[in-house]
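Morning F.,

Quick status update on the modeling queue. The single chain you submitted on Monday has been processed. Sequence for confirmation:
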Amino acid sequence: MRRLAAALAVLVLSAGSAILTVEPAHAYGNAFFHTQSSGNRGVEVLAMQHLLAHHGHAVPATGVFDSATVAAVRAFQTAGALGVDGIAGPKTWAALAPTVRAGDSGEAVKALQVELNAKRRLNLPVSGRFDAATTTAVRGFQEHAGISVDGIAGPATWKNLVWHHDYPDFGQGLCDQDPDGNGTAANWGTGAAVAQLEQAAKTFTASGRGKVPLGDFGFEHGGAIPGHSSHRVGLDVDLWPIRTDGAQCGGGRITWRSSTYDRAATRDLVKAIRAAAPGHVKLIFFNDPTLIDEGLTTSYANHDNHLHVRYCEAVHPNSLYVC
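C-alpha cells below.
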C-alpha cells in the first residue's frame, strides 16, 4: 500500500508538472501601456495616430511622434479632461483605445491591425475592416497571451498588444549575429526600440559601409537572457562595432583595439542611433576612449567588443529606463 501510495503521489506530481508546462505562459501579468512621447517612433506611435484620428484628431500616420502628434495628443487630453502634457501615458492610452469587434470599421480597427501585424508577425491588410481574418488574429493573440479568448479587442487586449514586444525587419539594414547562443529568440524589443534601431540602421547602411550587426535584444515576453544582467524589458540592444572592410556581418567579431576596427564608421553609427531616437537614448556602453571623450559612449566593463544601447521612455516602471 505504501508503495502504491508513493507511486500515485509521483504520478499526481508529474501530471501537475506536465499541466504547468503546457498552460499559457501568462507572460503579460505585468503588462502596461508603453508611454510614447516626442522623439519616439514605431508601431505604438502609428497605432496611436490611427486612434487619434478615430477620436477626431487626425494626423498623418507616419509612425513618428512629431510636433503634430504632440499637438493632437494635447487636444485629445484637453477634450477628455486628462492631464495635458502631450505624452501618451497609460491613462491617455486607455482613453484612446475603444472596444472594437467583428463588423466594426474605421481608424481604430486600422490601429488594431497594425499592432497585430507587428506583434504576431502577420500580414493582415490594414483595411480598417474588422473582418474574419482580423477576428481570427485577435483570438490567436488572446490565446497566445493567456487572456479571455472572445475575438473582441477590449481594454485587456489593447494593453497586452501595446505591451507585447516587436521583431526587427532585417531588410532595414540589419544582420543577425548571435554571439551568446541565444539565437533569433532574443531579437525582440519594444515597438519603439525596434523602430528606432531600424531607422538608425537604415541611415547608416545608406552610407555604403555595410549593415549593422544585431546581437542580443530581448525575448518576446521579456525576462532574463543568458549571458546578460539586463536585456529584460526590450529596451536594451547589443550591436557589433563596424569594420574597415565592411565585413561586420560575418567577418568575425572585433574590439575597438582591433586593426580592422573602423572608428569613423562606428562613430557615425552611434550618431545615427541617437538621431533616430532624440531624447530616447539613455546611454550607449562602448569602451572606445575616443568616443567616450566625445561624449558619444560610456565606459563599462566587458564592452570592448560591442555597443550596448539602452533606450528609454518618458515613464517606465523601472527607473533605469526613464528618460
